[in-house]
Structure formats: C-alpha cells, structure tokens
Fold this protein.
Amino acid sequence: MDELWQNDGNPRGLPLKRASGKNQMVTMRDVAEDSGFSPATVSIVLNNAPLARYIAPATKKRIEEAAKKLGYRPNAMARFLRSKRSHTVGLVFFDITDPFCTPVMRGIENALYQSSYVPIFADAHNQRNRFERYLEMLLEHHVEALIVVANWLVVDIHVLADLSKRNIPAATIGWELPGDTVSSVMVDNETGGRMALEHLHQLGHRKIAFIRGPKMLIDSAPRWRGVQKFAHSVGLEIDPALVLQLPDSFDPNSGFEGGHRLTEELLQKKKKFTALMAFDDLTALGAIRALTKAGVKVPEHCSVTGFDDVAMSALSAPSLTTVRQPLEAMGTNAVNIVMEGIKAGLEKREWNSVRQKMNPELVIRDSTRDVAHSSTD
Amino acid sequence: MDELWQNDGNPRGLPLKRASGKNQMVTMRDVAEDSGFSPATVSIVLNNAPLARYIAPATKKRIEEAAKKLGYRPNAMARFLRSKRSHTVGLVFFDITDPFCTPVMRGIENALYQSSYVPIFADAHNQRNRFERYLEMLLEHHVEALIVVANWLVVDIHVLADLSKRNIPAATIGWELPGDTVSSVMVDNETGGRMALEHLHQLGHRKIAFIRGPKMLIDSAPRWRGVQKFAHSVGLEIDPALVLQLPDSFDPNSGFEGGHRLTEELLQKKKKFTALMAFDDLTALGAIRALTKAGVKVPEHCSVTGFDDVAMSALSAPSLTTVRQPLEAMGTNAVNIVMEGIKAGLEKREWNSVRQKMNPELVIRDSTRDVAHSSTD
DNA sequence: TTGTATGCGTTATCAA
DNA sequence: TTGATAACGCATACAA
C-alpha cells in the first residue's frame, strides 16, 4: 500500500517492439529484407554515412521505418571488426573505496556519455597483479582509451609503455608519470597547501600543527612545499615539533585512523597550538575526533583544515573547512583529453599528451575560526 | 625528492613483449604462421577447447610459446561474433552519488573479476531517459547480464520486459519488481526496522521519535512495519506526534537535510523524547546535527540510530549506531545470481529468477546509550 | 592429431 | 542512386 512503484509503469498493454520470438537477434540483413533494399544501403542509411547524401529520401524513410519496426540495434562487436572502433573506454580505479573517487567517476561517466562512449570499469584494489590483469582484459576488449584514477598508489611505468606502443591514449587522474606519453590531470597541490595555511594565518593563527601526507603519495611533497613557501613569505615560523607525517599505507581510508593517532601524539607533547592543518579530509576528521575526545573543542579551541572536500566533509560535525579539488571537473577533463587523442589517432595526426593542473578552491566551513579565544594548553 | 615513484619501476631495460611496430594487432593467424600450425589448431590450443585433448604436447608447447612471444591477445569482439559471448555484464546505478553504492559496487566488481567478466558501467542520474539510453547502449554491446542498483528511484517495468524477452538475466539490488522475471537482492527491511527499535527499547527508551523514509522508497514501508510489529509485541506506545516522514526526493543525499529539518520540527513541539530512530544514516546524521545545534547532546540526552551503515557512519562524531546492510555481499550475490542465469542460458536450461532477502546486522556505536540520564525537555 | 572451409554482422570498395 | 562482394578475427564442423 505504501509502495508507489506498482502504479508507476504506464499500463499501456504489452511493450510492443518486435513481436518476434525469444532471443532472435535482428540484423541488418533482416532490415534489408524487410525494407526491400540491400544490406549495404541499409548500412549507409542507418549510419548516415557520407554516401547517404545520394540515397533517395523515400528509401531512407522505408529503411528507417523497417529498422524501427523490427527493433534493429547495431551490433557493437561486429561493427568493431570492421571499423576498429569499440566505443569503449577503460576506467581503472586504484581503490574505489576512497571517497575521492565517486565525484571523479561521476565526471568521467558524464563526459563519456555525452560522446556515446561506454566505460568498462575496473578496480585494482591497490594490487599490482590485479591492475595488470585488468589492463590485459581491457586490451582484449579493445578499449579506445584508458583513464586511470590513481589517487593513492603508485603506477609503474609498464602501463605507459604497453599502452602508448598500441597508440591507446591514456590519462591519469591524481597522479602523474615521468615522460610525456601519458596525460595527467591533477590539482595544483602547492597552491592548495598555500591556501589552507594562508586561511589559518589570516584568522590569526600562529602556533600551527601539521599532519603531512605519507611520503609515498605524490601529493604530499608539493602540498608541503606550498606550506613552507607561504610560511616563509610571511615570516611564519613552523615548529618542527608540531609537524608529524602520516605513515605509508595501502588503505586510502587509513587517514582517519592516522589523523586520530598522530593528533593524540601531538596533544601529548603539551605544546600549544591553535590550529591544525591536516593532509586531507579523512585525516582532519580523525584529528577532530582526537581533539574532541581530549576535550579540545573545534573550532573554539583549535581550528582544523582538510584537503579534497570529499562528500562527508560537508556533513561532519563541525563541518570541515577544506581545500576543494574540482574532482568532477578533473574527470571530465581527463575524458576530453583522451577523446582528443582518439580523434587524433583516427585522423592519423600526431598528438601530444597534456599535463593539467587544476585550481583548488578554499571552502570555509565550521571547523576554523578566528584565533581570538583559541588555545589548547 | 620526496616522490618515491620515480624509482619504483624496475629499470630492467625496455619492456620487451613484441618488439614489433606500433599499433599492429597480433592475430591468431600470426601465431599460426609463427608456430607453423593452422589457425584452427591454434584456436583449439589457446582456448583449451575439448579437442585440445588430442593435440600433441609438443604442438601445444610451440603454439603457446609463439603466442607469448608475439604478445598475442584474443580479440574479445571477434570472439563474440562466433561464440555470442561478450564476457561483459551491464551495471546500471541509479545514482552513484549515494554512499550506499560504493560497497555494492565493490562487491559486484570483485565477483565479476573472479569470473573474468568485465562490467560496463552506467549511471542513470535518476533520470529515466538516461536509464533507457544506457540500456540501449548496453544491449548494443551485448552484455550477457544486467545488474541494476536501484536504491533510490523507481524502475519502470519496461526494463524487465525488454530484457527477459532477450533472455538476458537481470538482477536488481535494493529494489524489487513485481512478477518473477527479474531477480532481486534486498536487505530484510522489516527485520532491520525491528532491530533498531529493539535496541533502543532494550536500552530503556520509551519516548521515541521516528523519521520515516519517503513514501516513494520501497524500503520505507517494511522498515516501518518492523517498527510497528515490535512496538506492538512489547506494548510500546508510539506517539503519532513524534512520527515524521521524509518527503519524496530524487536526491539520494537529501536525507541529511531532511533529517535536519524534521528534527528541528520535532524539537519545536517541545514533546519529550529520549531517542530518535532515523530512516537511514544520512537522515540520522542530519538529525544529530540539529540536536547538537539545539544543545541536545547525543547520546547523553538523546540516542540516535541510522540504517545502512555507509562508510561515513563509522567516522562521524559521535559514531553512529546503525543497522548494517551487507552491501558488499549483496553485490556479490547479485552477480552469482545472474551468473547462474547465464550458465542456464548456455545450457538451454530453464532458469528461475530468485528473490533474496539478506539479514541486516545491528552495529552498536556511540550514538546510542542507556536511557538512565537521557532527556530532552 | 591437425588442416580446410565457413560464417558470425558489419562496413567499405567497387561496379552497375 | 543502389547492389554485390570481400574482409575484419575467431571458432567450429568436417575432412584428412
């Protein structure tokens, strides 16, 4: 009685479309026979091939009607055999579990959809074996391009070699490879790091603690560089005792736990700090948890910033001030890049890979506040 | 200097594998010529076809070596043309943005990987047009089965008709259709509803507020039924003034806002309640936000339960007591179900769709507490 | 134990 | 303006 869906489907009798038997595939030949023309003509018409210009309108109409009547659907596989185009793009995530991935995925999917491409999805679970096996499978399926979302683990150069040799355009998101065969889309980490610190500095914070990213991650170094440069430019002193670093880890969600633990360490030092800049949002959330548990209120006693702006940052309590990566746009751009590559390949043009750095954006929420009455001792 | 990845790839010279030219595809014929056997024999050997039993071991070895040497990779498209098998499964999400989806996806992906199937991914953005267009595309790519993750919006019966007519096994997760053509995997919502209330009841709560799910959602009714049945069985009285309902919405993340708003309404009534049972986790998070803002501490003054156990529930502050849906297992099971369907189709057996109800699990965290000192007036 | 021939559904070339 | 034909890469029935 509560389930509305039962009435949702409009009850206009049987869904028509091909009254024919069970599993019969409708081929171009069927359309040809039904319409009284040859398969060649049918192909030309239904694909709107160049030659379609010379086909009589009446013919076109009859063919199109026959196709619709029979429920004809082109066979992507057979089509590939001739055209070498699969209308398929490989999409490899290093770990879909990372909240970073969802918006990126949305961006990619949406852009591909606009081009009538279909993504073949793979999740490497951060395992190299799995990554390579998937790569193999994607090549068997003849994806026309590859997008790798490598936010957390390292991609070995193999990928690049094997792909570029086959002229399959590839782009990475959240990582970049040496050399210029593979395109990449990344946030400008240095600017992002600066933004976060600048924000805290503007709020008047001077005793600031830092939780740096794991050495393993490509983002860690430039983000920290941004911090250092800004600190230097305004004469802010960074107390080494207040700088900790997340350990390397293969679990993209380990940041929470890491942030929690390192913040506890920080508190044990009994060194005063009025703000904490965390490597990313999960780390920040873990830090907030530790602070709160220790009776340090955020943001009253201590401001905290994150990085990424994953979905839960807006929903946490307090909501998180963070440096936003334009994740969805990054997905979109990666698609546009490889699409260019595909087009170039089709036209046998040379094509250069591109390296894109996207601008981050400071999102101010409730976890940061003017230093006025902040204190942690 | 901090970027480790530069040393990661082992620098063992050039990646070998096919020293041949650029984009040349290696076909079975190449392997045949190189090994000195016919394409038929090569096919038999490389596929381990039944006839392979009769092939001389030496022959097998030479063929396999040639294949490896040339870097032969079977062409999935060409293979499909003969075998009618694409080794591909369509995966349609109604809205990937819902945190519900990630673990489900992980489960599906993992199970497919075990069977060497590859998922073609689609996200309907909750739009029917888009859903139908994707369905079309998936059919053009001849997916062997379809899995629909329809947690939030309504699937119209069309799907079913069009698919079952083509003998493509289909399963839905988080939704079920009338009739018996489409399999489904759902959590046992009624039991889950009961569990949540039972937990609160055991903690001594008697004045309990409820935020029910939107009418539109298939989960709402049975979950509420579980609540009512349990309340009745223990003689718990449910105050209608403390029962609110989320409005229908197409945004799976609207729960947070809805929970927030409805909880404010609830507080304005000035009616005492010591616990709140929310429809799902996001709603619970929204509710907690509203309570906290109003000075009502969770769980000291008011206990809150969610439903689903999405990733952020463990990370929120306070962490959320909730009814866990075994999302990953649900994904796995859906795959196993359609795989059975595929196998049945191959063997021309009859096959019955299945409807699975999975057991939920109560996860007790920090948002619920003994009633002893709870109060909201 | 292995090879030959055929066709899957499509598109492109050429001929009519 | 349209049709006949061949070929894409593979797997199978049949022949050897």
